């Protein structure tokens, strides 16, 4: 009987944990509940993914109100893929959080952290699983608001300003999104994603629909840090607590990318989005600029976390590039990169958090000679960095392969060349770490504290292992991505 | 033991050895013993595949499917087995030599050295046994990354700079040129398997096929075709055992091995419509230009590095001529050059360890003090020049015969000129060492540590033995023709 | 005359642009939040105005009436208002903390303080 309600439980469990934690107030309880909820959530997501793989999409009506009037939760190949990603990252990050949060947050705030984390998790899972566009907005704001709080909990005062900046830009983005779906509602009279897909096709007066498309693109674009709407990301990722950065970097932007894909391919359809408006060219141009400029900016940063933040914007560019290619290979690469980049960046930020713990910061001055003091951490960053570059046998390579194939299939030789050359820029910034950690002597003030605690190292290395595992055994990330891409391309018109 | 199991053993042994070596950091003798035992085990495993392959079998192993329709696959064919035999056999001798060198020079980070060495061997076996371009590419890249810590072993500024050039050139060529070439091949041919006769026949326009060939040839940076050869001299900052490994066993051979495999098994002897005419000129230019630089280099390792650049292009030239006999010669030269060059580098390292001399101009009379080392050096030089009774003569003979058959006069002229140049930069060293008075500068010294001398005498002897008992290498090289 | 009939939309657009400008323009953090509020209000108007159908009555079913105004946008906007209030509350809470940490809530002064702190050795 419970198993029928799994889609609802996926969201409800973390959602009710949040106020529960605030009521009980004890840190140990807060962490235990948050961890339990994350792990159960992972179990539910995997179960839903398996079910979808076997018998097709699952539709769940909230409160038994039938769609399209009621809110529908819909689990298909694409959403189950993202659900697994979000819950996996949450599950791995929680054991890490116990030590990390204890080190970075004052005692009286820790239970609040876990409460906000549960809300954020609920929000992200809700965005992924819902089939109603306004419900999506609600969950979008739930996850965003809790994310603003989480970021503001950073140790430095710059975290506050970064959170505020993110709040302003994020709210503008969400409001644009609401305008967009408002226009869609005006033209079609429905808020259900699947129903919208059918009705949008029948609308004759195109201008409001195109306006809606534009608003939704810009709105979601702000959430996913599409260049040039990415301004909030570097500060937010650099100054947030380590756990928060790792969690958000791996999930928040990916979920927004999922929303973009859903709207483009299902609601609006390829014909409208890419042929009526030249959105594929625009997205292509923006992606290329993002990849090249943000990678170059990353090379010149003096702080590891900030470098990784700019790298994230560039990697998001790869995903939007795959979307803009509009063929099966490109879209497969894009969807796979949601997962591949999620585990890669998650691993990198978790390891960076350990460095922050032991060295008091993540500037390159503090990292000098790290290979001696923290060998496992450094090696982990090297491996995850290789995934970022796209070396074969890593998850990042599988994405690059599909993107290059997709570009060549479209005849864009220059784009294929650009994708591979951008990997070389990634080599430049990853190798800055390698040289600092292994080929430089430690500075005189370097603390002699040794490797990070096992409770943090193990989850981080689990993610590093995932980078390699999913580079070779690709049946999950590529397999699911491939069928999800098929689904998206064929539901469009 | 089934062939599949042998392939798995061949891959697992070096990796397992790396792990064990890492764990025995505190016990150097145990650590060295593990390396030697692993090297021996690897050679035995690879050699066990020899009778199977010689009788026409092609053991293959299919691992996981990475992309739909593209799996990690291994397929042991004669040329790959030849490469694997050279690599694993020379690992034994290299390890023996390394023990002497690392301890004789009291080098730091020895565990890291042996670990990366073992992993480099694992990658090399992966390249040798690869069954398709994806597997080849994977292990090719792994080889680059695993040898980086070896090149930057000393950790100083010079090492860092050398490491940057090394990685920069190799990663640039493989990522920007080789990877797109592989992807295009995949899209055009629908497969990446190594098939006799090639997979591209009739599928591309001549222009497209030629561009693809250019991408492949320059993309395989480890073959050190100019202008992507700079990584080789830059890697000389490494300790000499590393240079020996790079220049005889693993990295460069992986490069030219890949070149020959791509030409024979992806393009095929009918060239799949690509225009091959430019390649002998590029290879020829590399041969001559590198030889001239070698002639003028005073640093011994630098001279040997550029000699390697030159000799590698012999292989490329032999393959580029596309005559069956010259391709066999190219494959044989992979073996011949390996034994010759490793001896030369071993000798250079022995001279450094015993006397701290690095420049050719300092080598007067060294032969009197280090007779075994310089004798081996002389024998290996003969092999480089291509004179009997060394194996270098056989491979050169095959290449020349093939070029004659194809009436490729330019190739013949290049080979002739470079033979003279080879003599020009090797003979003076031998002459100085034996026929000049030892210089009074510097302390008196004797031979290098015995492990080093044993290793280099062994490789020099093999150079002669392979000339006398050449049937197995020739049979394996000929396997390229049948498939 | 269609232009004049759609005055509801014109007001919404005007508020949208005014709100956005106030948010983006340099100044005080609280001012930015106010701008955000105005921006969000314009969206509420955008939803609610079309909900009232000409000749429509309150959405309670009765035989006397055929046309009803649409209640759904009102429901949606109630939710959106709640979200807006939460955002405003959170924003103000952050502003209070910013005031404690920086001593000011003017954006340019905050940026200046951050830049000055960066010149000194990293803490």
Tag the structure with descriptive keywords.
heterotrimer; A: 493 residues; mainly alpha; two-stranded antiparallel ribbon; 21 helices; 79% helix; B: 483 residues; two-stranded antiparallel sheet; 20 helices; 3% strand; globular
Task: Please describe what this structure looks like.
The complex is a heterotrimer of chains A (493), B (483) and C (123). Chain A has helices at 6-24, 27-55, 77-104, 110-129, 133-152, 158-188, 193-201, 206-223, 232-239, 242-268, 270-276, 279-299, 304-325, 328-359, 364-367, 370-373, 375-389, 395-409, 413-439, 454-472, 477-491; strands at residues 58-61, 72-75. Chain A is mainly alpha-helical. Chain A has a domain at 278-493. A two-stranded antiparallel ribbon of chain A has the order 1-2. In chain A, helix 5 (133-152) packs antiparallel against helix 6, helix 8 packs antiparallel against helix 10 (242-268) and helix 14 (328-359) packs across helix 21. The two termini of chain A are 38 Å apart. Helix content of chain B is 73%, strand content 3%. Chain B contains 20 helices and two strands. Chain B has helices spanning 3-23, 28-48, 50-54, 78-104, 110-128, 133-151, 157-189, 206-219, 231-234, 240-249, 251-267, 278-296, 300-320, 324-355, 366-369, 371-385, 391-405, 409-435, 450-468, 471-482, and strands at 60-67, 70-75. A two-stranded antiparallel sheet of chain B has the order 1-2. In chain B, strand 1 and strand 2 form a beta hairpin. In chain B, helix 4 (78-104) packs antiparallel against helix 19 and helix 4 (78-104) crosses helix 20. Chain C is an all-alpha fold. Chain C has a single domain (2-119), classed as Helix Hairpins (Orthogonal Bundle), CATH 1.10.287. Chain C contains five helices and no strands. Chain C has helices at 2-5, 7-24, 29-51, 72-102, 107-119. The model of chain C has no long low-confidence stretch (mean pLDDT 89). Chains in contact: A-B, A-C. Chain A binds chain C through residues 134, 137-138, 141, 145, 148-149, 152, 157-158, 160-161, 163-164, 167-168, 171-172, 174-175, 178-179, 182, 185-186, 361, 363, 365, and chain C through 16, 20, 23, 29, 32-33, 36, 39-40, 43, 46-47, 50, 73, 76, 79-80, 83, 86-87, 90-91, 94-95, 97-98, 101-102, 110, 114, 122.
């Amino acid at each position: 009987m419970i198993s029928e309600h799994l889609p609802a439980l996926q969201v409800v469990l973390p959602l009710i944990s949040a106020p529960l934690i605030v009521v009980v107030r004890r840190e140990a309880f807060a962490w235990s509940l948050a961890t339990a909820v994350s792990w159960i959530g992972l179990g539910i997501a995997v179960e839903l993914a398996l079910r979808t793989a076997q018998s097709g999409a699952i539709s769940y009506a909230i409160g038994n109100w039938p769609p399209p009037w009621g809110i529908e939760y819909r689990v298909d190949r694409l959403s189950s893929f993202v659900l697994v990603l979000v819950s996996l990252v949450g599950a791995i990050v929680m054991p890490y959080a116990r030590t990390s949060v204890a080190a970075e947050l004052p005692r009286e705030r820790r239970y609040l952290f876990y409460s906000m984390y549960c809300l954020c998790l609920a929000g992200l899972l809700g965005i992924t699983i819902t089939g109603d566009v306004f419900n999506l907005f609600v969950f979008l704001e739930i996850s965003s608001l809790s994310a603003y709080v989480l970021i503001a909990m950073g140790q430095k005062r710059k975290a506050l300003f970064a959170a505020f900046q993110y709040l302003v830009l994020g709210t503008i983005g969400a409001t644009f999104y609401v305008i967009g779906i408002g226009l869609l509602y005006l033209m079609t009279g429905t808020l259900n994603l699947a129903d919208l897909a059918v009705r949008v096709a029948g609308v004759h007066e195109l201008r409001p629909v195109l306006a809606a498309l534009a608003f939704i693109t810009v709105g979601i674009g702000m959430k996913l840090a599409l260049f040039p709407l990415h301004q909030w990301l570097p500060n937010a990722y650099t100054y947030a607590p380590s756990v928060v950065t790792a969690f958000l970097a791996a999930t928040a932007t990916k979920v927004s990318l999922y929303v973009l894909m859903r709207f483009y391919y299902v609601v609006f359809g390829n014909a409208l989005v890419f042929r009526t408006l030249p959105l594929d060219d625009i997205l292509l141009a923006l992606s290329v600029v993002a990849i090249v400029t943000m990678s170059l900016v990353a090379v010149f940063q003096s702080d590891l976390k900030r470098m990784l933040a700019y790298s994230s914007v560039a990697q998001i560019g790869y995903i939007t590039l795959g979307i803009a290619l509009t063929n099966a290979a490109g879209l497969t690469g894009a969807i796979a990169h949601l997962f591949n980049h999620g585990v890669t960046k998650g691993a990198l930020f978790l390891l960076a958090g350990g460095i922050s713990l032991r060295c008091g910061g993540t500037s390159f001055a503090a990292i000098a000679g790290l290979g001696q003091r923290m060998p496992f951490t450094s090696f982990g960053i090297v491996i995850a960095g290789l995934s970022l570059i796209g070396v074969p046998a890593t998850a990042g390579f599988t994405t690059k392969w599909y993107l290059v194939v997709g570009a060549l299939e479209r005849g864009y030789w220059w784009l294929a060349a650009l994708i591979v050359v951008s990997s070389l820029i990634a080599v430049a910034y990853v190798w800055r770490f390698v040289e600092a950690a292994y080929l430089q002597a430690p500075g005189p003030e370097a603390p002699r504290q040794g490797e990070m605690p096992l409770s943090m190292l193990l989850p981080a290395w689990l993610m590093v292992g995932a980078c390699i595992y999913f580079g070779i055994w690709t049946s999950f990330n590529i397999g699911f991505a491939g069928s999800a891409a098929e689904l998206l391309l064929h539901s469009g018109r | 033991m089934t062939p599949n199991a042998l392939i798995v053993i061949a891959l697992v042994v070096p990796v397992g050895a790396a792990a064990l070596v890492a764990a025995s950091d505190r016990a150097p003798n145990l650590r060295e013993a593990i390396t030697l035992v692993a090297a021996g085990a690897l050679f035995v495993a690879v050699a066990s595949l020899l009778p199977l392959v010689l009788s026409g079998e092609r053991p293959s192993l299919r691992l996981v499917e990475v992309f739909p329709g593209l799996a990690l696959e291994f397929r042991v064919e004669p040329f790959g087995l030849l490469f694997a035999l050279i690599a694993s056999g020379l690992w034994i001798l290299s390890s023996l030599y390394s023990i002497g060198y690392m301890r004789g020079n009291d080098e730091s980070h020895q565990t890291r050295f042996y670990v990366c060495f073992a992993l480099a061997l694992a990658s090399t076996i992966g390249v040798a046994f690869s069954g398709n371009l994806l597997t080849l590419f994977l292990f090719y890249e792994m080889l680059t990354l695993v040898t980086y810590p070896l090149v930057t072993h000393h950790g100083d500024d010079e090492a860092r700079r050398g490491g940057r050039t090394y990685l920069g050139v190799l990663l640039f060529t493989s990522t920007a040129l080789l990877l797109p070439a592989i992807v295009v091949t995949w899209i055009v041919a629908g497969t990446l398997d190594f098939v006799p006769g090639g997979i591209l026949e009739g599928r591309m326009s001549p222009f497209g096929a030629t561009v693809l060939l250019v991408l492949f040839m320059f993309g395989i940076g480890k073959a050190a075709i100019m202008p992507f050869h700079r990584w080789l001299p830059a890697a000389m900052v490494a300790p000499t055992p590393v240079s020996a490994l790079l220049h005889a066993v693993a990295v460069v051979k992986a490069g030219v091995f890949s070149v020959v495999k791509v030409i024979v098994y992806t393009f095929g002897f009918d060239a799949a419509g690509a225009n091959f005419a430019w390649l002998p000129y590029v290879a020829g230019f590399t041969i001559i230009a590198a030889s001239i630089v070698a002639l003028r280099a005073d640093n011994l390792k630098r001279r040997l590095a550029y000699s390697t650049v030159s000799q590698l292009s012999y292989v490329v030239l032999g393959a580029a001529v596309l005559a069956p006999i010259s391709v066999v010669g190219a494959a044989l030269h992979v073996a011949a050059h390996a034994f010759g060059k490793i001896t030369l580098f071993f000798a250079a390292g022995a001279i450094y360890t015993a006397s701290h001399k690095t420049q050719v101009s300092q080598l007067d009379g060294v032969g009197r003090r280090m007779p075994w080392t310089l004798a081996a050096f002389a024998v290996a030089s003969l092999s480089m020049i291509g004179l009997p009774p060394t194996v270098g003569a056989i491979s050169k003979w095959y290449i020349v015969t093939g070029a004659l058959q194809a009436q490729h006069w330019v190739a013949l002229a290049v080979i002739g000129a470079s033979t003279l140049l080879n003599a020009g930069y090797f003979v003076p060293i031998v002459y100085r060492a034996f026929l000049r008075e030892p210089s009074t500068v510097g302390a008196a010294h004797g031979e290098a540590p015995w492990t080093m001398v044993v290793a280099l005498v062994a490789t020099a002897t093999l150079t002669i033995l392979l000339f006398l008992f050449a049937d197995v290498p020739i049979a394996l090289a000929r396997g390229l023709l049948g498939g | 005359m269609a232009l004049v009939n759609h005055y509801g939309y014109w007001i919404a657009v005007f508020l949208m642009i005014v709100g956005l400008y106030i948010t983006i323009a340099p100044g005080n953090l609280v001012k930015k939040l106010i701008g955000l509020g105005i921006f969000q209000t314009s969206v509420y108007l955008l939803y609610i105005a079309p909900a009232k159908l000409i000749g429509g009555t309150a959405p309670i079913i009765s035989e006397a009436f055929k046309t009803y105004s649409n209640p759904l946008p009102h429901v949606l906007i109630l939710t959106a208002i709640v979200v807006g209030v939460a955002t405003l509350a959170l924003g103000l809470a952050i502003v209070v903390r910013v005031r404690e940490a920086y001593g000011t809530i003017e954006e340019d002064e905050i940026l200046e303080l951050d830049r000055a702190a960066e010149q000194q050795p990293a803490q």
